[in-house]
Write a structure and sequence with these properties.
Layout lengths: L1 E2 L2 E3 L2 E3 L6 E6 L4 E7 L3 H20 L2 H17 L1 H12 L3 H18 L2 H4 L4 E6 L2 E9 L2 E5 L7 H12 L3 E5 L6 H12 L7 E3 L4 H9 L3 E7 L2 H13 L3 E5 L4 E5 L5 H13 L9 E6 L2 H16 L20 H16 L3 E4 L18 E4 L6 H4 L6 E4 L5 H10 L2 E2 L1 E5 L3 H10 L4 E4 L15 E2 L2 E2 L7 H6 L1 E9 L17
Parallel strand pairs: 1-5, 8-9, 8-11, 9-10, 11-12, 13-14, 13-19, 14-17, 16-17, 19-20
Antiparallel strand pairs: 2-3, 4-5, 6-7, 7-23, 12-22, 15-16, 18-21
Helix pairs in contact: 2-4, 2-7, 3-4, 4-6, 10-11
Length: about 500
Amino acid sequence: MQELTHYINGAHVKGTSGRFADVMNPATGEVQAKCPLASKEEMAQAVAHAQAAQPAWAATNPQRRARVLMKLVTLLNRDMDKLAEALSREHGKTLPDAAGDVQRGLEVVEYCIGAPQLLKGEYTDSAGPGIDMYSMRQALGVTAGITPFNFPAMIPMWMFAPAIACGNAFILKPSERDPSVPLMLAELAEEAGLPKGILQVVNGDKEAVDAILHDEIIQSVGFVGSTPIAEYIYATGCANGKRVQCFGGAKNHMIIMPDADMAQAADALVGAGYGAAGERCMAISVAVPVGDETADRLIKELVPRIEKLKVGPYTSGKDVDYGPVVTAQAKANIERLVQTGIDQGAELVVDGRDFKLQGYEDGYFIGPHLFDRATKDMDIYKQEIFGPVLTCVRAQSYEEALGLAMDHEYGNGTAIFTRDGDAARDFANRINIGMVGINVPIPVPLAYHTFGGWKKSVFGDLNQHGPDAFKFYTRTKTVTARWPSGIKEGGEFSIPVME
């Protein structure tokens, strides 16, 4: 049995708490490794190393820091297949999907190579008589991130790349369910030239999280996960004077207008709803066709596509559409919600409950499900299922469809499929959701824009990656300077004002 480690001050370090979490193979249901769960003392050790290393890294000019990220991009491309295989082995994603996970993180690293430009301050010459003013963006110090199981490569890079580009040290607490890739990323960063102690990985559970939240040295915390935990981390971190950004749950609606290309809409829904077994915060989990005729046409297109989905382990090849969910507990929760949908009166059009995969009976595989005629009072509509379940809620008008998305407590992502530019423009302007797709089912912005939802999908006022990341990981200092001219006029005893 493999025993994993922490990565502290440039070395793999065995856990000393005596506590471990099982790292499962989701395809077989077997334990494949043990992940150490850090104590408060182990976290403090990492923080001490980060605090010692950070000043010299912050004093390194941004261009030299960017060169480390340039080298990291090269190494990520070199080890893409290795990273994807390790990710698939612990998470269950297909290999192409796992490689995409790495790639979308890599793109943020590429964006952060522009740190010299992104960190430039502002300057005003002669703001007053003989007075110049300028601002500087300076590193926070020691920062931390708590990342989820569903993107074990992408989201860590979304956090640590801008953090270290800005001159901070970063402590990563990844999910204990699939910790190998974060450990590999820390190794690659140091191979790229990152000093020891600047990027460390401390595995753990709530004890490690609380150690981060209550440590006085850690200046900021990023989090991605469920809304209840996001609320807890945001409230606790803010109460302790930290800068905090937390991204929570989602229930993403896709509106299908009567004029939409129905085949295109169905293809988009199948990929967005069932890709990665639905374990994406940007997955489309609710289809909202406008009008019964539209709904009937959509269901007719969806059913054969869903029934043809190939479910299997990543080792079955690149034509597998999706793999298992991450744990037995996740599988049980999805099955519970499916039964709730049936009990509450939704029509189960595609029933994946009897899905079995020969040779993998103990794995966490779930067949695809499609509900029709669900209503907004049902649990399958209100709750985030995080599984291969698509729910169709019929709307009788555009305004009703818009209202469904706007009234839901989550506001991460949404999409509309239509040929009508006026409807699309109105939708984009009125919807109270952070990321909007127009004939794009999963509108995850590219690295040079920012990622973030609204409502109960986010806590904090700055998004991930893009320009917001450089704001989040720096403080602005403004300097007002006057150099002696040789003319002494005496002291000033009132607030100076412009004349």
